Amino acid sequence: MAGKGIDSTSIADICRASGLPVGSVYWHFGSKAGLIAAVMIRGAERFFDRMPGLDTFKGSEAERFKQWFDSNTGMITERPDFLRLHLSLSLLDEAESSARDISLSVRALALERLSLAFLPWLTELGIDEPERHSGEFAAMMLATVDGAFIAQQLGVATADAPMNTLYECLVARADQLSNSGAKLPK
32-180: CATH homologous superfamily? Predict the structure, then answer.
């Protein structure tokens, strides 16, 4: 699907590639959309399960965050087929709302898991309302990953520059929040 596109990939294509009978696909997943949902959700869960936590790194808060960030930003190049499929589903029109809903579910999972990943760092920094701010950081990271991935796929940029800029922005925002006790408007 990542190579041919969702619309151009039939259940027969999927069965040929997987070696499964057509009936099995329908029995287990109900439809092509059900299969896509299972693949996308499982892929996202597996990716985030492999993401190391901040507590796996040594050093100061800043050093551990840098190590965590660097180890996890490889996701742009590590899973290009998954990200391409995810973004393709995200851009579908309302006529294909079930596939788009799948993508939105995966995005919600990504925001939740990234938010949980940022939480220990922000808590260690003593930032007020770290749960709310971790959501802000997660949204910023996800948006940057999306943009960097698209630029990389178009061949107009590598992922390094936007991810390095994101790191600097996250650190500056955390510094601002920890020094000033600033609160974001609700």
Answer: Tetracycline Repressor, domain 2 (1.10.357.10)
